[in-house]
Amino acid sequence: xxxxxxxxxxxxxxxxxxxxxxxxxxxxxxxxxxxxxxxxxxxxxxxxxxxxxxxxxxxxxxxxxxxxxxxxxxxxxxxxxxxxxxxxxxxxxxxxxxxxxxxxxxxxxxxxxxxxxxxxxxxxxxxxxxxxxxxxxxxxxxxxxxxxxxxxxxxxxxxxxxxxxxxxxxxxxxxxxxxxxxxxxxxxxxxxxxxxxxxxxxxxxxxxxxxxxxxxxxxxxxxxxxxxxxxxxxxxxxxxxxxxxxxxxxxxxxxxxxxxxxxxxxxxxxxxxxxxxxxxxxxxxxxxxxxxxxxxxxxxxxxxxxxxxxxxxxxxxxxxxxxxxxxxxxxxxxxxxxxxxxxxxxxxxxxxxxxxxxxxxxxxxxxxxxxxxxxxxxxxxxxxxxxxxxxxxxxxxxxxxxxxxxxxxxxxxxxxxxxxxxxxxxxxxxxxxxxxxxxxxxxxxxxxxxxxxxxxxxxxxxxxxxxxxxxxxxxxxxxxxxxxxxxxxxxxxxxxxxxxxxxxxxx
Length: 507
Hints:
This is Response regulator. This protein has 19 helices and 10 strands. By secondary structure, it is α/β, with parallel strands linked by helices. The chain has 3 domains: 3-129, Response regulator (Rossmann fold, 3-Layer(aba) Sandwich), CATH 3.40.50; 170-288, Reverse transcriptase/Diguanylate cyclase domain (Alpha-Beta Plaits), CATH 3.30.70; 397-506, Homeodomain-like (Arc Repressor Mutant, subunit A). Strand 7 (204-206) and strand 8 (213-219) form a beta hairpin. The protein is flat. The chain starts with a strand and ends with a helix.
């Protein structure tokens, strides 16, 4: 509903004007002010879209009131109402950005016509601003998701993470941690509520749901302790689910000092979610029971990035060998079978969570019977690994047949657009990391290189048209800077775009 403020020192003029406007504009909300000072005060409380301002008034005149209000609220539009049709007043009104003026007295039809045109312009401007706002929100949402995937999942994207962080304009502190929300199947509709909760705090970034995981990077509030801040947020997020589903759980990673270290916090949050059967539906990584002596000398490879990458790449023999060596190590140290079993379970849980992130339905690994010795532990563990391996192979064999061709065709046809691994993943319902692996295995290059090749082939065709400028071709091939485009072209083709064009035209 549009708001209009009538400003005139004569009540009969105000009442008459309001009657005409209410009769012609049924959705217009109208208020009145008796002078310029009152109009300035009402602009702060009423927030009108349009003000009809009389020029001659006692105290602050209309032009002075317009300037005063414009200085504070530049988006408010004005129509001057005056009995003085002089060039001087018109010039001053134009300088102040007044949209139009009405002479006293005016016919009702003239009043409706002038005000109607201005209201239409204001509405058009509002629609344009709303479209830009929505587009900006979408862009920022994509940037936010891109930050998460680059930081936590080691993806390579066109736009570097530092630029994306700058785009979001959310200041981050030197202390931050990952909160990993496990969302049960059928509860994905809670995502907008979680996003609203995180954004209302203006201290965190939220990613997309991968499998059943929703990763969130939280910046610490130095005025509160890390645990109290994380605890309050975890409780608030859990309370968003009206269904109170048992599958809800939150893992809270350890605090790190920079964005470069945030993957470690993600791994810790992942480990904290391994046992979702706890009565309290959240757990800090530091509260996960540490079995045995921490300084037992055995490196925890499964808590590092390389281990998760091996799972994503399907390197099952490497993973099985690592676990076998772990069991042998603890057997030689005389560690109890129960403690060794729990250490192996920690590895299995990491593997299962990574597979779930890739879109596979993996049950949390458990030993279905009490293990009595190391031989039984090795057999049971090998059996579980074999089942996970088969699930992995079946999943990708089923999807891979037509996927790669579809991806290449899509990239070739849309190479002029901003294509990310994330958008490709949504197109074919595969994890971005696996898509990157496919390009490496099948073409020997990453997807960015393939996208660049497609853009260069398109550029070669466009350069054959002498009517097109290099700048036009830059934009039509998906780049924004002609200088950068020229550098990429020369690197890929060995000559500059202009040199290529000359050789084509000579032929």
